[in-house]
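Subject: Re: docking follow-up (adenosine-5'-triphosphate)

Dear J.,

Thanks for your patience while I sorted out the input files. As discussed at Tuesday's group meeting, I've set up the holo structure prediction with adenosine-5'-triphosphate included as the bound ligand rather than trying to dock it afterwards. The sequence and the ligand SMILES I used are pasted below, so you can double-check that they match what you have on your end before we go further.
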Amino acid sequence: MIELKDISKIYKTKNGEIAAVKNVNLTVHKGEIFGIIGYSGAGKSTMIRLLNGLEKPTSGSVIVNGQPISSISGNKLRQARQKISMIFQHFNLLWSRTVAENIAFPLEIAGVPAAERKVRVKELIDLVGLSGRENAYPSQLSGGQKQRVGIARALANNPEVLLCDEATSALDPETTDSILELLLDINKRLGLTIVLITHEMHVIRKICHRVAVMEAGQVVETGDVLQVFQQPQADITKNFVMQVSGTKDSKDSIEQILANYPTGKIVKLTFIGNKTEQPIISQLIKQFNVEVNIVHGNISQTASGPYGTLIVQILGEDSNVQKALNLLNSIEIQTEVIEHA
Ligand SMILES: Nc1ncnc2c1ncn2[C@@H]1O[C@H](COP(=O)(O)OP(=O)(O)OP(=O)(O)O)[C@@H](O)[C@H]1O
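The structure tokens for the complex came back this morning:
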């Protein structure tokens, strides 16, 4: 559906060249929700501008929905872009138009007759849950409602791809979740391909199927979201995963527990899918005569299933502790010894 082949984007500035994107290769499949995460300056906005044809790459090619976006221009590019919609952090609504008029705007531009527009606008308003607010102006709406208008407007002309530019960054956590659920619902119902850029791992965890992690213009890691959560490779990815697994906060607890029980091993266990529901800890205790102190535990849902992190201290004879770790590894629970006594 989307293919980026060896893309680089170099900006020439007074102070020399800036490589905003460097040698990026990415494929996004039809119907998936693909997230691009990175800190400020990583190159995410440049990537999204390359995807909708607002920027041309310095080298490489961008293909979206079968169209070589990076090499077409004029009418051809305009036509191709009708199938690529976008929603924005600050909504970009027309303030002098009502909700219904904002949603009708792209239909007017596409030359859809008034009667057909009316039916389509009603459908879209129902789809995004804004019934009853048709005649409100953007200034009378909450942030979440404004983004719902942005989503309805983006869907008006039945796009193949929806690009989301930090679409929930201006919203509070609860509203963020409701907008993410709406995007997930639209993806499932319409089979729409969604590419989003964000600096929040929560957004990736909640709705993305796959993720690319960007740092200094490069993609440093890509993979299925569950797999990246379970086995992050790059340091930056580990930091992003810690944002949502809560393990950053467990440092003090680990120090405390080591002061109280200065023997044994502190081990971080990461597990996915139905392993989150198994009584693994009691099995370890019974089978290997070890004691287990729980330091931190967390289970989160992703779009592809549950994912859990548990930090425990395992106390016992070395050989028994090792056997316990071997058992965990054999049932595909990721173990990482983070402190030795
Ligand atoms: N038009 C431009 N001219 C010159 N440099 C640019 C231009 N656009 C982006 N850059 C530079 O390219 C790099 C990547 O910027 P980009 O905006 O793509 O990153 P980002 O990950 O989206 O960060 P942010 O979330 O802060 O926008 C930065 O160093 C930025 O200063």
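A couple of observations from a first look. The longest strand covers residues 16-28. The mean pLDDT is 90.

Let me know if you'd like me to rerun anything.

Best regards,
T.
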